[in-house]
Amino acid sequence: MHYRLGDHELLLIDDFLDAEEARQLLERLLHALPWRQDRITIFGREHPIPREQCWIAGDGMTYRYSGQTLTPTPWPHWLRPYAERISEAAGETFNSVLANLYRDGSDSMGWHSDDEPELGPEPIIASLSLGGERRFRFRNRRDSKRTLSLDLPHNSLLIMPAGLQSQWQHQLPKTRKAVAPRVNLTFRRLVDA
Ligand SMILES: O=C(O)CCC(=O)C(=O)O
Ligand SMILES: [Fe+2]
Prior knowledge:
The protein is mainly β and 193 residues long. It has two helices and 15 strands. The chain has a single domain, classed as Alpha-ketoglutarate-dependent dioxygenase AlkB-like (Jelly Rolls), CATH 2.60.120. 2-oxoglutaric acid binds next to strand 8, strand 14 and strand 15. 2-oxoglutaric acid (AKG) binds next to strand 8, strand 14 and strand 15. Its cofactor is Fe(2+).
């Protein structure tokens, strides 16, 4: 499914993995990753993030955002084949993953762009969703009334193209609906790594 976002085209691929493979990968991610609820600083105040996360990357590839520095968990061998398939689908060679765990509808991620300097000027981001379906929203950075909402179902891959992050923000809002836990893997390429 393609979505138009200003000058950019978003691609959402449903049923990216085989159903059984997606189920097993979700179980593995839930049980085998060292999930942490880190703390971030917003406007000078420290808060626990409303989700758990795990930064997966090569040795020494730290990642800084919102006042936190994430030290990497090494790549699990069983995740590598997925990184290769997702790199192929997105036309980019990803070398790192930010994994997010939304335990229930009160877990969320606020408005941001994936525009950290480590990612270079025009990063391509590929985001694999597993588990409970959640709503995902975009808004234009210059005109916040321009928005787009889409649902990210279990076993879907969203590809955000080069150039999108400098013009659009995204968020994963909280929901009052009962939702199953959701794991999201955002594949990234750290430059100069
Ligand atoms: O959970 C999601 O779908 C989005 C995660 C995200 O935006 C990020 O990790 O930068
Ligand atoms: Fe993001």
